[in-house]
Design brief:
single chain, 2 domains, eleven-stranded parallel sheet, nine-stranded parallel sheet, 7 helices, 12% helix, 21% strand, globular
Length: 558
């Protein structure tokens, strides 16, 4: 369609810089008057994105065991700080047979069990309430549901929920070692369950450790799509965050806040990669640690790589104080080691007039941003905003909502990207490597791969906008199609599994296993180099081989 060539050329200019990263260096809520296009029908119309040609550019109790010590990832393609989770590997298989919010056969009943377990699904559709994961050593294999599973809030947290750093807030148990894949969480309305712990978030991680969320879809939250608090060694990858509703929309993306390192719950070692944010205004994310004095002097390790932020209103926020409302906020430092790599903002004017990142405390460009004594060290490479193709990385750090004017008038605090201030480093921090995706292909790649599968109507609508390079003109704090809880049509029945080991009888027969004997924990398939099963290699159990192959099939449209 008209105008897409400029976007492709801009993405291509970023592609080379983005591809260098993984192996080197050491590491308006309404229409703004743009011409509507007919490619997307969301009830509010669409606009075409701007396409200006670019220039260069102590250990408290937990439930769950240790992560896998062999280096085997949670599943093929798991990357980042949470990739070592083993979940329910080798444990029991529990089959969800009911869409009830609790009781026998429900997802909540399976989550309430203890010990290593893998949860598979013989049902598809809507669980009309939130679920809570407190006991670790668990894999939630949403890919086994033929038509997918939607919940109304997915909470991963301990048995005490508060964000203070007081002893009373330390839980007696908290979740560790979990894998959650192919789950949709939408519309976590308090009307469903006023006592629910979701608090308006679609996904919440609170005092969680050693886990990975992969191919999940978060939509129509009332607070944040994601809140991550007091948690460590977490990966969120290939997921979709979309359309936070109501008055909190401007802050409705991902809040990463609250840290209590003195009691063993630091907020650190987080990986966010290959996620797509669509029609969410702010918190893209917000990084903070508002715990005084526990978080004073703490350093958060964070990898944010190859994320696409579609139609934003605000930049990434980096909070630098653990006491932001105190008399001298920066006297309580909270610092970062961050890799910010290959992230793209696709925005429209005049709604978006920011850089990509704001550092707390920068009230005007002339003030600078960070004294040399601070411990923050940022590695920046391959990041861009389509509205400002001549700026990248360091040049995109800015305080205010007049970025375009500052860029044009020489008012940027760091106009020379080659002259690095002390808080920016030239080499990548030695964090777990994330596979690079070129800027040229990122939008199409994530539109095809991010979020839960099989696609439901809401995700299909949102991804169509990215593929057609259009913006909806509907209010950004709304769901113009009302499709958050719409289910996948025509879902088939789950395949027969006579022995209840999570492996369909037909699959076991095809691979030489006995369909009348529990083969789930065996490793014979993975140890057979000629097995021909996608994602089945040494170390994975027979059940994991099936889960990995099924995940690949879902992504392939099967």
């Amino acid at each position: 369609m008209a105008g897409t060539g400029g976007i492709v050329r801009w993405l291509l200019r970023l592609a080379t810089a983005s591809l260098l990263v993984s192996c080197g260096g050491g590491g308006s809520t309404t229409s703004d008057g743009a011409v509507p296009t007919p490619e997307e029908n969301t009830g509010g119309g669409t606009t075409t994105p701007p396409t200006t040609p670019p220039g260069d550019s102590s250990s408290p109790p937990t439930t769950g065991g240790p992560v896998d010590a062999s280096g085997l990832p949670a599943f093929p393609g798991a990357e980042g700080f949470g990739a070592g989770a083993s979940g329910g590997r080798g444990g029991r298989v529990i089959t969800v047979t009911s869409l009830a919010t609790s009781g026998p056969g429900s997802l909540q009943a399976a989550l309430d069990e203890r010990g290593a377990r893998t949860i598979v699904f013989a049902v598809s559709g809507l669980i009309d309430g939130p679920v809570v994961l407190t006991h670790g050593d668990v894999t939630v294999a949403g890919q086994t549901s033929p038509g997918g599973i939607t919940v109304r809030g997915f909470v991963i947290q301990g048995d005490v929920v508060c964000e203070d750093d007081s002893p009373a807030c330390v839980p007696s148990e908290a979740p560790s070692n979990f894998i959650v894949r192919f789950i949709r969480s939408r519309d976590p309305s308090e009307a469903v369950d006023p006592s629910a712990l979701a608090g308006g978030d679609t996904f919440r991680l609170h005092r969680a450790r050693n886990g990975i969320l992969d191919h999940v879809s978060a939509g129509n939250a009332y607070d944040e799509a994601f809140q991550v608090s007091l948690s460590s060694d977490i990966t969120i990858q290939y997921s979709l965050l979309a359309e936070t509703l109501g008055e909190h929309s401007d802050l409705g993306g991902m809040l990463i806040n609250y840290s209590d390192p003195t009691r063993g719950y630091p907020l650190t070692r987080l990986t966010l990669h290959h996620n797509l944010w669509n029609r969410i205004s702010g918190r893209l994310p917000e990084f903070s640690r508002e715990n005084f004095p526990s978080a004073r002097g703490s350093v958060m390790d964070i990898e944010m790589a190859y994320n696409l932020i579609w139609d934003p209103s605000f930049p990434i926020w980096l909070g630098l104080s653990c006491d932001p409302s105190g008399p001298d906020p920066l006297a309580c430092p909270a610092d970062y080691r961050m890799n910010l790599v290959g992230n793209l903002f696709m925005a429209r004017a005049p709604r978006f007039n920011h850089g990509m990142m704001t550092l707390e405390g920068a009230l005007a460009p002339s003030e600078g941003y960070l004294p040399p004594s601070r411990a923050t060290r940022l590695f920046l490479q391959g990041n861009g905003v389509n509205l400002f193709p001549d700026a990248h990385d360091l040049q995109l750090i800015y305080c205010c909502n007049d970025y375009g004017e500052a860029l044009a008038n020489g008012g940027l605090p760091y106009p020379d990207a080659s002259s690095l201030p002390p808080f920016v480093v030239a080499s990548r921090h030695d964090f777990p490597v994330v596979t690079a995706t070129s800027g040229e292909t990122l939008a199409d790649h994530l539109a095809a791969q991010a979020g839960a599968f099989p696609r439901d109507p809401m995700d299909t609508r949102l991804m169509a906008a990215v593929l057609s390079r259009t913006f909806s003109t509907a209010a950004v704090n709304s769901n113009p199609a009302g499709d958050a809880l719409a289910i996948v049509a025509g879902a088939s029945a789950a395949p027969a599994d006579g022995d209840g080991d999570g492996l369909p009888d037909s699959w076991e027969q095809a691979h030489g296993l006995d369909p009348q004997s529990d083969s789930s924990a065996g490793t014979d398939l993975g140890n057979d180099a000629t097995n021909g099963i996608i994602g089945c290699s040494a170390g994975y159990t027979n059940l994991e081989c099936y889960l990995n192959e099924t995940a690949a099939a879902r992504l392939g449209g099967r």
